[in-house]
Amino acid sequence: MLDGNKDLRSDWTVDEVEALLRLPLLDLIGWASAMHRAHHDPEDIQKASLLSIKTGGCPEDCAYCPQSAHHREVELTKEKLMNPAHVLSLAKRAKAAGAERFCMGAAWRQVRDGQEFDKVLKMVSGVRELGMEACVTLGMLKPHQAQQLAEAGLTAYNHNLDTSPEFYGEIIGTRTYQDRLETLSCCRDAGIDLCCGGIIGMGESIRDRASMLQVLAGFDPHPESVPINVLIPIEGTPLAHREKVGIFDLVRMVATARIIMPKTRVRLSAGRSDFSAAEQLLCFLAGANSVFYGDVLLTAPNAGTGQDHDMFELIGALSTD
């Protein structure tokens, strides 16, 4: 039986998580759906808008990312840090379209003190004044920077693990797994919620997927938000020719994340535009309760707001405001 806080564990093993991922699909979905209903309103699906506030030229070598300066064959227009006033005008537009959280991403390796970081702090405080949750992803942070973001009102910091510790070196060589964990620790110490997930479809094994989820579920408390991204193969990146992930792989990840992190928001993120409304409904049934909302995710295509409006109307998850 499901029993409130007794469902919360931070001691999952990789073997246990892998066993969940390999359950018969209907059994897995059934368990995850029951867990979801025990801890969440199934009609509550958070809509988060994501904006690239500084695009391209990143010194990291992430194999999946078109913004990396290492991938010279990618066709991408570099853009400097946006003006805070313009960002806030776009945040207002996102709120009017139904977004509840406004996420801002800058293609930096790490945050540097100075004028640009001060602009980001203004963006954060401005978004909060609009009555929206504010999230940023800026690369690595130092403790005093996390504290400044917290003081500006930041709701959450996004810093994905991307994959398992074991597979990580196949994808990224310019930043260690420990670097990522240290930034997350800085955010937690500053009282900022964690938005932390990963990507499937990069060539990882089922064991790697289980290992990544096990690391996430090992945080105490669990991350408040876990985005599950499906690789979007981009021409010019090392992963450009990877086969696309099927819907049942995504459903299994969502359902397993829901079971092992019952109170977390599990977000359908990059790649969901490849799936129909019916396929996304399977993910909601399996415990997803957040989506990235809007036509573009940083530099990648996303399901349009019109399509999403129709889908949410179909499932009865539109706001009544």
User: How many helices does DSSP assign?
Assistant: 10
Biggest β-sheet: count, sense, barrel? 9 strands, parallel
Portion in helices: 25-40%
Radius of gyration: 18 Å
Low-confidence stretches: 297-302
Structural shape: globular
Strand order of the largest sheet: 5-4-3-2-1-9-8-7-6
Please specify the SSE layout and strand pairing.
Blueprint: H1 14-21, H2 25-39, E1 46-54, H3 84-96, E2 101-106, H4 115-129, E3 133-137, H5 143-151, E4 156-158, H6 177-189, E5 193-195, E6 198-200, H7 206-217, E7 225-230, H8 247-260, E8 265-268, H9 277-285, E9 290-292, E10 296-297, E11 300-301, H10 305-315
Parallel strand pairs: 1-2, 1-9, 2-3, 3-4, 4-5, 6-7, 7-8, 8-9
Antiparallel strand pairs: 10-11
Word description of this protein:
37% of the residues lie in helices and 14% in strands. The strands form two sheets. It has a nine-stranded parallel beta sheet, with helices on one face. Helix 2 (25-39) crosses helix 8 (247-260). Mean pLDDT is 88; it is low at 297-302. Helix 4 links the parallel strand 2 (101-106) and strand 3. The protein is built from ten helices and eleven strands. It is globular, with a radius of gyration of 18 Å. The protein is of the alpha/beta class and 321 residues long.
